[in-house]
């Protein structure tokens, strides 16, 4: 899932170097997110936009990672390509035991 988190920053907020933002995220932010293994997450920072690429244990953990990274001073947006090894947000478009769904997603009638 690709997600963009754009952040409103007031005028006058000093710009930070991309290298400084990356160092802070790698050193201070990711390792301190409790209950989330971020060892397989890689970071790229370009013009204040942080790109997160990698794998987490659960899909739902990506929201917490994005939120924490967005709080770093100088970050103007967070783009992620994070994947979870386990899906904790199941969405069923069709299920045989849900009576209000009458048609199978492949177009055939039930």
How would the blueprint of this fold be written?
Elements (H helix, E strand, L loop, with lengths): L2 E4 L11 H12 L11 E6 L2 E10 L2 H10 L6 E10 L24
Parallel strand pairs: 3-4
Antiparallel strand pairs: 1-4, 2-3
Index terms:
elongated; alpha+beta; about 110 residues; 2 helices; 4 strands
Could you walk me through the main structural features you see in this protein, from its secondary elements to its overall organization?
The protein is an alpha+beta fold and 110 residues long. The chain has one domain (3-86): Histidine-containing Protein, Chain: A, CATH 3.30.1340. It has 2 helices and 4 strands, in the order E-H-E-E-H-E. The chain has a 4-stranded mixed beta sheet, covered by helices on one side. Strand 2 (41-46) and strand 3 (49-58) form a beta hairpin. 20% of the residues lie in helices and 27% in strands.
């Amino acid at each position: 899932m690709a997600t963009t988190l754009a952040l409103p920053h007031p005028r006058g907020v000093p710009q930070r170097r991309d290298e400084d933002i990356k160092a802070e995220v790698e050193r201070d932010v990711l390792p301190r997110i409790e209950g989330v293994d971020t060892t397989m997450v890689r970071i790229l920072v370009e013009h204040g936009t942080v790109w997160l690429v990698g794998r987490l244990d659960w899909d739902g953990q990506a929201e917490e990672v994005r939120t924490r990274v967005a709080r770093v001073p100088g970050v103007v947006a967070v783009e992620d390509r994070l994947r979870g090894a386990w899906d904790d947000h199941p969405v069923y478009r069709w299920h045989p035991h849900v009576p209000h769904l009458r048609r199978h997603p492949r177009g055939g009638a039930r």
